[in-house]
């Protein structure tokens, strides 16, 4: 039985501050996490919460996973960027070309995200969070298709994308990671088993997951947890 996405976890040196930043960008209420840190329930429900987890380890290099935010017009794209900059974000250079119209920013702890141009057809129909975009092989994309029970909505070369039948963000995997992995991913998923956890764990391992301490790893080495 496929499992559900419970939260997108984000390691944070200052969880409350980072949650407040994303609340300004996405809307929604920040609430304390009983286990430490903060939760954000975005104003437009993407089907999961953002969970900001305390860490003492600063980020190192670019993240393997980031958010792509949608916009409905040029004015809306400009407004999202302005909100983010006013709340403590900054422009981030990933080598984007001058003719590319998406904006790449970083949050106050250096986590990259994109504000996508309004005419982007791939994210048409998605909410404010258009995609969770990650580095991952074709095998990783197929793993997430089967783990979540979501259909494949894009598959070309090594690129894959899945999306819940109910809509919401696409989970996209852009191919084999370009850069070597530097420690544990700062952004990772928490999944929730719908039935027996042990049976679900066995199913995920059979699909290609690997155990790594308290984490599981997808076929490209991206951490996630099964609650």
TrEMBL record:
Q: Residues in domain VOC?
A: 1-118
Pfam families reported for this sequence? Glyoxalase_6
Q: Which InterPro entries match?
A: Glyas_Bleomycin-R_OHBP_Dase, Glyoxalase_6, VOC_core
Question: What protein name does the entry list?
Answer: VOC domain-containing protein
Q: Give the organism, scientific name.
A: Kineococcus rhizosphaerae
